[in-house]
Amino acid sequence: MAETGTKAAEPPRWQAIAVLLFGACVIGLSPIFVRLTETGPAAAGFWRLAFALPLLAILTRRANGPFRRPSGIALLAGLAFTLDLGFWHYGIKFTSVTNATVLSNLTPVVVTAFAWVFLKQPPRPLFLLAVAVAVGGSWMMAMEKGGGPGLDPPLGNLLSATTALWYALYFLAIGEGRKTEGASRLMFWSSVVGIPLLLLAALVLREQVIPLGPAGWAACLGLGLMHVAGQGSIAWAMGRLPTSLASVVVLVQPVVAAWLGYVLFAEAIGPMQALGAAVALAGVVLAQWASRRKVQPAA
Question: Mean pLDDT for each 10-residue chunk of the chain (299 residues)?
Fold first, then answer.
């Protein structure tokens, strides 16, 4: 895949949507891997980026040639993603996999509001409806079980909801950076920023940093591969899609996380959660359709 920030030889829109959906589904695996790492929450984020960095370095070198100094937007993306991982992983520790994923994915609300207020990009009413439907479906999934299982569900839910702010900032930074930089370059430098910060956080919080056995190491490696494949696909697609649309499409993550939470951790999926998943997916489809209708007349 070409890594340029230009529109030359741009692939069809459906390909970008497909890559974005693939990335979102892969990222849906992350809370499962975090539970299996046998490390602390921040340490899990450290290993995720540490294992991803060598592969990202290879991809960046092949796509962009010799390494150059990072841009300011890449450093901002790295800081935002570091905060996102730290808050989200602690959310996963204290609440259910489903709740942590759902609440952290309130990102579309933040992204749409930011674009509306600060970038003077008012959304179409149909797109606002799509955001409301998608987020409403996500809330239905989370609320059926109340706080959900976990060590401290209220704290975990708060941390997960705060994650949405950091993830929104990351989305906005990546969306801006993809106008001039390749996806792998942005991913590489954001990982370089996050690795020492997450390791420092793990040490300060006295976490278990080293996995306790082969299964933990395998989960850490899985996190790294998932980061390259999932977050990398999302970053690539964001160079070809509106940031607001991308932030809605990734709401398929809670659906994937809920299903995996049920299969691996016996977190029951009740009728309301199943309905919420269907509603969330309907909102994603509606957002894609609303965004596409806005673009076609200009074409």
Answer: 48 81 84 86 95 94 84 94 90 76 74 76 81 79 58 83 88 89 92 96 95 94 94 88 76 70 66 78 75 47
The residue type found at 121 is: Q
Q: How distant, in Å, are the alpha carbons of 100, 149, 199, 230 from that of 224? A: 20, 27, 15, 10
Nearest 10 degrees: CA dihedral of 125, 131, 134, 140? -100
**DSSP character string of 10-39:** PPPHHHHHHHHHHHHHHHTTHHHHHHHS-S
In the numeric block, the tokens 């069809």 are attached to 12
Task: Report yes or no: 248 and 76 within 8 Å, Cβ to Cβ.
Answer: no
Residue in the block written with tokens 């070809």: 240
pLDDT at 5: 47
Domain range summary for the chain, segments of one domain joined by +: 13-293
DSSP string spanning 111-159?
HHHHHHHTS--PPPHHHHHHHHHHHHHHHHHHHTTTT-SSS-HHHHHHH
